[in-house]
Design goal:
heterodimer, A: mainly alpha, globular, disordered N terminus, B: alpha/beta, Rossmann fold, Alpha-Beta Plaits, 2 domains, 4-stranded antiparallel β-sheet, about 35% helix, about 25% strand, elongated
Chain lengths: ~290, ~325
């Protein structure tokens, strides 16, 4: 078969032209879902996130239950806090996933294919955000459920329980996946702004690991007022139980300083505001910059 | 149909594309030709909205690219730089791209088959050779069965079989009435594939004409004659008012005379002619002549190599 007939044979079935549908937000979400699940790095990140959440929950419950020091004495924490303790490390993993979801496209050139398929650009950013947040929320909710099931055998020893009809418990159990999904978008926004994997990861981890902790060492009044509004400090209030929140408030009173004390949902709203502002900025730049 | 009007792109004080206006028509293969750095890739990126023009505008089928609601059905694009995530398989790349336009597995399998990628479709694109990468790029461009194809150096890295395949495919697509716009710096490829040429140099339009016309423009009307009696023939032709240059001891170049006329003159003068040929301008010559002043990166003349060859022994 000559090259000419080969081509004709291959193109011929397309003669009744391939039906092509207009780009919609739903189709962009479908496309981004294929993209996310067809990369190994996604499965590595999610796998590590699951492992950290489950292992931390189970080990913390088991360790506390079997430590004679805690035997008989009342444990301050509620059950929900035991099974969600892994969030501190897990947030670093999902943040990285968020950065890579967009910086990987710039690094490899994929972004050019993505933007020729949707030249209006900004809907792509939103579709990616929806898919990322949804995936991380579902994965963390699953991990919390597994951690709960795995550690519940020691609940009786510790005298704790998780009761989803209790607003505090419910908030912690759902707040953990919610916080992790939102902080993923924080990483995503930095990745979109900086268009570089190294730059994005360094910035978001620097913010969460270094800046938010370093701030506590600076005594200045201004710093004390700003610190509660940093993304992780504010946002993580949503996954703390009422007991911890009360303790935080008490500690602020003891210090005597009139520092702002945010409620759990106020704190979460602050994190959302960070994400919205950064994503808005990223959308603006995405429209303006050459790809 | 692609229409560019006064298309301009400046980076700082460097002008990559300078007030470029041209039209690419359906039903033929239009070559976009120019030396490296002439602004070909930048122009193509502006057509599909990846780069924003500093001035001017460009439309595809009457609308700017971003105004099309199903752009992949209008324009298929293969850019010179890779545009595929290295960690994703070829098939998943095409599935994700197609999903934005409701294009499903059937069409993806079709273009995979058509571009000869079936055996490697589940391999990660990062492991692809340059040639396989090009085939994947062409598969992506064909996904939406578009009216218009924009291909930046499509034969780059392809083996001879692949080059022939691309050439046949593009000619076939143009014969179906589609608009095919491809860039290349390879003249020989253009001579075989293109009907029409848009030639640029340093971001400016140099020529926009059918291939035949561009070759004709470079015609020199020179005829070469090889004869052992060069001196006698030179005298006879000069007497008739033709400009004759002696290239070698037995080789003359005659301007402004047909081969028939020279043969008859030689016969009358009793001069034996060993060789008589009109000098054909190739597309290569035409191109070199057109872009001579507009090459951004000049190579130093290879002086030593040419002077060392003794005159006349080169053939």
């Amino acid at each position: 078969m000559s090259a000419a007939t080969a081509v004709r044979a291959a193109v011929a079935p397309a003669r009744p032209r391939t039906p092509v549908q207009p780009v919609t937000f739903g189709r962009l979400v479908a496309s981004e879902w294929i993209k996310l699940r067809s990369l190994r790095s996604t499965w590595w990140s999610l796998g590590i996130a699951e492992l950290l959440l489950v292992a931390f929950g189970v080990l913390q419950t088991w360790g506390t239950a079997t430590d004679p020091a805690n035997f008989g004495s009342g444990v301050a924490q509620q059950g929900a806090a035991f099974v969600t303790g892994g969030w501190v490390l897990t947030q670093l993993v999902v943040c990285t996933l968020g950065v890579l979801a967009i910086s990987g496209e710039y690094g490899t050139g994929q972004i050019r294919s993505t933007l020729t398929a949707e030249p209006r650009r900004v809907p792509v950013l939103l579709a990616k955000a929806v898919v990322l947040a949804g995936t991380v929320f579902a994965a963390s909710l699953l991990a919390v459920a597994v951690a709960w099931a795995g550690s519940s055998v020691w609940f009786a020893d510790l005298g704790v329980s998780i009761d989803l009809s209790d607003p505090s418990d419910l908030r912690v159990v759902l707040g953990t996946p919610l916080y992790l999904a939102t902080v993923t978008l924080l990483g995503f926004a930095f990745g979109a702004l900086l268009r570089s994997s190294a730059g994005g990861i360094a910035t978001v981890l620097g913010l969460l690991l270094v800046l938010e902790n370093a701030v506590l060492l600076i005594p200045g009044r201004l710093v004390q007022v700003i610190a509660p509004f940093l993304p992780s400090r504010a946002g993580s209030l949503v996954l703390q139980d009422d007991g911890s929140l009360d303790a935080t408030e008490m500690w602020a009173d003891i210090q005597g300083a009139h520092v702002p004390v945010l409620g759990p949902w106020e704190g979460y709203a602050v994190l959302v505001a960070w994400v919205v502002v950064l994503l808005g900025l990223a959308a603006l730049l995405l429209r303006r910059r050459d790809a | 149909m692609i229409e560019a009007v006064g298309l301009t792109k400046r980076y700082g004080d460097k002008t990559a594309v300078d007030a470029l206006s041209f039209t690419v028509r359906p039903g033929q293969v239009t070559g976009f030709l120019g030396p490296n750095g002439a602004g070909k890739s930048t122009t193509m990126r502006m057509i599909v909205g990846l780069d924003h023009p500093t001035a001017g505008r460009v439309t595809v089928n009457g609308k700017s690219y971003a105004q099309h609601r199903a752009p992949l059905g209008e324009v298929g694009t293969l850019l010179e730089a890779k545009a595929v995530h290295t960690g994703r398989s070829a098939r998943n790349h095409l599935l994700a791209l197609g999903a934005t336009h409701g294009i499903g597995r059937r069409r993806v399998d079709e273009v995979v088959e058509m571009t000869g990628l079936a055996s490697v479709a589940t391999k990660r694109a990062g492991k692809f050779s340059l040639g396989m990468g090009q085939r994947l790029g062409i598969a992506a461009a064909m996904l939406g069965d578009p009216h218009t194809l924009i291909l930046d150096e499509p034969v780059n890295g392809l083996d001879p079989e692949g080059v022939l395949w691309v050439r046949t495919l593009l000619r076939h697509l143009a014969s179906e009435g589609r608009t095919v716009f491809l860039s290349s710096h390879l003249m020989s490829e253009m001579a075989l594939t293109a009907d029409h040429l848009v030639v640029v140099g340093r971001g400016r339009l140099i020529a926009d004409a059918p291939v035949a016309e561009i070759v004709a423009r470079a015609q020199t009307n020179l005829v070469r004659v090889r004869t052992p009696q060069a001196h006698a023939l030179e005298q006879a032709l000069t007497a008739q008012g033709h400009a004759v240059t002696s290239v070698e001891r037995d080789l003359l170049e005659v301007a402004g005379a047909t081969t028939a006329h020279i043969a008859e003159t030689a016969l009358r003068a009793g001069v034996a002619v060993h060789e008589l040929s009109a000098v054909q301008a190739s597309l290569e010559d035409a191109y070199m002549r057109l872009t001579a002043d507009d090459v951004e990166y000049h190579s130093a003349p290879v002086a030593d190599a040419t002077t060392r060859v003794p005159a006349g022994s080169a053939r």
